[in-house]
Amino acid sequence: MNKKKIFLILLILSSVSILSACRIVFDPTAQNAKQKEIQKEHRQTVKVQEQEEVKTEEPEEEPAFKINAFLELDGENMVLTGDTDLPFESYIDISLKIYPGNATIEQIESGEVKPFNEVPPNIVGIGTSVLEDGTLETKTYKRPETSTRYRFELVFEPESQEEEIKQQMIEQAGDLDELAGIQVLKEADPENSMVHGDKPVKGYIKSAEVMKADEPNGDQVTLELH
Q: Where does the signal sequence lie (predicted)?
């Protein structure tokens, strides 16, 4: 065997040895373990972020005055009961608003659809007042059609109360415009408002969705106003 052939054989053997030493070993078990560890770290990061978001959410402000109200549905009759820590003889208004006939229950419950019209007080009835023991005067209201969906609202406006009642509220909770949990019920409308002038109407509002009589929450049930 000549020198060239010997050299070629040695070169080939050396190359094979080098490649064998440098080969990459693929270990599926190690890869899976690493992937699981990455996924675990990701889940932990997401969980921490969710916890931080919950912590940073502003808690709902407790209203200065509580109103607990319930509406019992019995055919055309809607019986209002409840209690409150509002002053004796405070007046609380009510309204019954009609939902569009083509609105679905899901749209109503999600707030996607709003009532478009209000039933006149001479049909549904007028508001209620606070009795001496703190309960609401029990009132029975009428819904014109049991085949229509409504929103029943209970509305308390501090500024519309008698002066004596307003003074009691101020002594108990402070400025009526700054009461805890108070909402803007109507924006300022100086052209059309003879009572409130250019001030927005503020107050507390509670409501319940009254469904058709043959639907859940439509009849023979007591709804809590929120």
A: 1-20
